[in-house]
Design a protein that fits this description.
alpha/beta, globular, about 475 residues, 16 strands, about 45% helix, four-stranded antiparallel beta sheet
């Protein structure tokens, strides 16, 4: 029986919850366990699982939702350490046993809350009491654990019988497929992946200072990016997008700053014709059009967006209409044959399907759901898509390959394999927007500018 199944098989009814805070804490613990188990056992994305839960269970108020949601996502963020508490736990006075089952679960919830500096102290105190580890799970009110290194040291001090390492916050296979240069970069990677990223956005059809002023009137503190003139950070708080006129009128699009790097490297001219081969819901298609219009309000350039899925393309159509963007059309993939004319486009963007390891900050559950095959299975597909898509680039045109993966197997290796068989294309030197380094291929690392991880390479067709 797995640990999670053992917890599920243990009734919480045997626990004595007397105060209102203890009763709510017990209810939260049960709900979080159900959601956590569903994600791990059924390998379903956590955001989808929790979203569906709240859609069905409308009894929860905003505070309930916050406790449940933030606790759930934090469990995945620190699971590399928390899963150690399902057996024996050492204390400062020796070694004590934490029973597999409910005691271990409450230990995890309490440690999880301490690592995140959560503010719901009455519920945390109740969880600590249920765990039987109150002394070890207390934290001085003046102590702030600012980063993964400090949190690792705190855990080691509290539980000396257990070994904790920052490397454990991601699975072993991550280091095999996403190697780092040295210990310093390795730690920086862990620190970034263990932190919550801000909400990055991009403005359209509006001056960025005007957008920031409008957001301030809604009590939303936004700051302009130092890298791109149309990018702003909206901080870390949840935002009701539909309640914002900026969003409803198409003047604001949510797009991570790392993702925005891709459009900037594409650098479309106002009257270019571009094909976004794997557009999804069209975030980069919209960015390309916005970049054209920023240069010339009468820009006649066009973007054709393609995807194998119809629903994302329908969403793109809604987003383009909301922004009053003309010149964006959809042409779905129906077979292996190109859904667009060959030798036709000034630019082709291949934002290929990938393991998405660069988005683990936003989706910490994926690091425990996925396995090494999520990386190893992608390169052949990526090379095939890149090869077929390249046929649509006209002579002198641009071909851009991008992923949100941090693995060279999906990035540099795919580009090099493509170039080895397609001599009519050559890499172009471009500038990394965050480091300033000029190179032919760029990996955007999460810690460089508080973003998701991305990879991008720009090529030109010579003949």
């Amino acid at each position: 029986m797995t640990f999670l199944n053992e917890v599920k098989a243990t009734s919480f009814e045997a626990i004595s919850a007397e105060t209102p805070a203890q009763k709510r804490a017990l209810s939260y613990a049960n709900t979080i366990l159900q959601l956590f188990t569903q994600v791990m056992e059924k390998q379903q994305p956590a955001d989808r699982v929790v979203g569906e839960y709240f859609r069905i269970n409308k009894k929860h108020g905003s505070k309930d939702r916050r406790v449940i949601r933030e606790s759930l996502f934090a469990l995945f963020r620190w699971w590399g350490w928390l899963n150690k508490f399902n057996t024996n736990t050492g204390t400062n006075t020796g070694t004590s046993t934490v029973n597999t089952g409910t005691q271990a679960w409450f230990t995890m919830l309490t440690v999880n809350a301490r690592l995140e500096s959560h503010s719901w102290e009455p519920f945390i105190t109740a969880w600590a009491g249920f765990s039987g580890q109150e002394k070890q799970l207390s934290l001085d009110g003046e102590t702030r654990l600012e980063n993964a290194s400090e949190k690792c040291d705190w855990l080691t001090e509290q539980f000396p019988a257990i070994r904790f390492s920052t490397d454990e916050l991601v699975p072993d296979w991550f280091w095999q497929t996403c190697p780092t240069q040295d210990a310093e970069q390795r730690l920086a990677m862990v620190e970034a992946l263990s932190s919550r990223p801000p909400i990055w956005a991009r403005v359209q059809n509006i001056d960025i200072d005007e957008a920031i002023d409008k957001l301030a009137k809604l009590d939303i503190t936004a700051t302009a990016s130092e890298y791109f003139s149309d990018s702003i950070s909206l901080g870390h708080k949840s935002i009701n997008l539909n309640g914002m006129s900026l969003y409803r009128e198409g003047e604001l699009e949510i797009q991570d700053l790392g993702s925005q790097v891709v459009g900037q490297i594409c650098a479309p001219n106002p009257n270019d014709n571009w094909w976004d081969t794997c557009s999804g819901a069209g975030g980069k298609s919209l960015q390309l059009r916005s970049l054209m219009l920023a240069q010339d309000k009468q820009a006649k350039g066009t973007i054709v967006a393609s995807d194998v899925r119809r629903k994302p393309l329908e969403e793109l159509a809604k987003r383009a209409k909301r922004a009053s963007f003309r010149g964006i059309t959809a042409s779905p993939w129906k077979s292996d044959e190109l859904p667009v004319p060959p030798n036709h486009f000034d630019g082709v963007l291949v934002d290929a399907p990938c393991s998405c390891t660069g988005t683990w900050r936003r989706n910490p559950d994926m690091r425990w759901i996925d396995v090494i095959d999520s990386v190893n299975d992608k390169p052949n597909l990526q090379l095939d898509i890149l090869t077929r898509s390249s046929r649509a680039v006209k002579v002198g045109g641009t071909l851009v390959y991008a992923t949100c993966s941090l693995s060279p197997l999906e990035n540099e290796d795919v580009v090099n394999a493509f170039l080895a068989k397609h001599s009519k294309f050559e890499l172009e030197i471009t500038r990394h927007p965050f480091t300033g380094i000029e190179a032919t291929m760029h990996t955007v690392l999460p810690y460089q500018a508080d973003t998701d991880g991305m990879f991008v390479a720009r090529m030109k067709r010579k003949s």
